[in-house]
Amino acid sequence: MLDVYAFATPNSVKVTIALEELDLPYTLHGVNVRKGEQKTLEFLALNPNGKVPVLVETEQAFSLTESAAILVFLAEKTGRLLPTQGEARARVFEQLFFHASGLSPAFGQSGFFQRFAATPEPIALERFSTEANRTLHVLDTVLEKNRFVTGDEFTIADIAHFGWLWRRGFPNITLDDTPHVARWYADIESRPAVQRGIASIEALVPQD
Known about the structure:
- The protein is α+β, with helices and mostly antiparallel strands.
- The chain has helices at 10-21, 41-46, 67-78, 86-115, 122-145, 156-166, 179-189, 192-202, and strands at residues 2-6, 26-30, 54-57, 62-65.
- Helix 1 (10-21) links the parallel strand 1 and strand 2 (26-30).
- Helix 1 crosses helix 6 (156-166) and helix 5 (122-145) crosses helix 7 (179-189).
- It is globular and about 45 Å long.
- The two termini are 32 Å apart.
């Protein structure tokens, strides 16, 4: 049995989408980051870094953090969504690392400085907003040539990028100037497993 500790965040939705795409049963546990539940002692025992998501394989008493690592683990567990060798496998990791080191932090920091900074930080906002748009246009260049981010096949790299683009409103990003990303996003969003993964995550948000 797989237990997932998550909330309606870009990184969390990657995991539920992957689980739905891979037809793996799981139990979803809400961790309300708006209330600071990720900082409780109980949650820190699962992830000392105090962030969602966390995947726990109950029978093996094995827990894993970091969304990209979880995606790789699930793909290798099932033998799906990740090529086993050669250039095709390398391209998936290339995009995973680009996402983890480039697009994801730029989107996150841009959103933070727009919404949560205690005082205006024009230099930081300019830096991260520019970088968020730049990385989005890099992705658009990739998708100009490919149906999916690594070629003709849907992989965990697509799931990784989709997570932050699903929450692109947080850094105030649009797809108006990236038509290839827009086409790709619509294709991914229409997948039934993706819709189920999104629905399960959105159900964790309390209704006021």
